[in-house]
Design brief:
The protein folds into two domains: 1-109, no CATH class; 123-171, no CATH class. Helices cover 5% and strands 46% of the residues. The chain has two helices and nine strands. It has helices spanning 33-36, 124-127; strands spanning 12-20, 27-29, 70-79, 84-93, 98-107, 110-122, 133-140, 147-156, 162-166.
């Protein structure tokens, strides 16, 4: 991928660290802006932002070596011009088949978005399906407790496609 030299990137900082299973120390990954963001969707002279399109959807994809051993990832993207920050905290278990992802967006010192996503691989002996079924729950903290706004089951079909069953959260 050719990087457009006219896309402004020097105002974005990326802090990326991860921890291996059974290890207390954090490993720091040096990641360039060009390695994290997908520049193919940006216009010439467009200002890169913390919410610009990324190359990978899953944070684990940014780790090349020993990624099956990773138990936790934290990434913080900071925009020094707009004084915005986006932080992802992700914890894995069950051989990385399950995770909880926390996303926090800051505008200055104010949290303007906060969400948790939990994805779990449901045991085949429980579902009775040969194909995988994943339960996904998305919720945000609130003054009166967490608010669930998505609950669904994703089924991996035998033909490689996926189907979704939504379980509507009650208000």
């Amino acid at each position: 991928m050719a990087i457009n030299d006219k896309i402004k990137t020097d105002h974005i900082d990326i802090e990326f660290k991860y921890r291996m299973s059974g290890v207390e120390e954090w490993l720091i990954k040096s990641i360039a802006v060009e390695e994290y963001f997908d520049f193919s969707e940006l216009e010439e002279d467009e200002l890169l932002e913390v919410d610009s399109l990324t190359i990978y959807d899953d944070l684990i994809e940014y780790i090349e070596d020993e990624r099956r051993q990773v138990s936790q990832i934290i990434i913080i993207i900071t925009d020094k011009i707009k004084n915005k920050k986006r932080q992802f905290n992700q914890t894995f278990w069950n051989d990385q088949n399950n995770y909880i992802l926390e996303r926090i967006d800051h505008a200055g010192a104010v949290v303007d978005y906060h969400e948790f996503i939990i994805e779990t691989l449901l045991p085949q002996k429980t579902t009775g399906n040969i194909e995988n079924d994943y339960e996904i729950i998305r919720f945000s903290p609130g003054e009166e407790g967490p608010k669930c706004w998505l609950h669904s089951i994703i089924h991996d079909n035998a033909d490689g496609s996926q189907s979704e069953i939504r379980i509507e959260p009650k208000e």
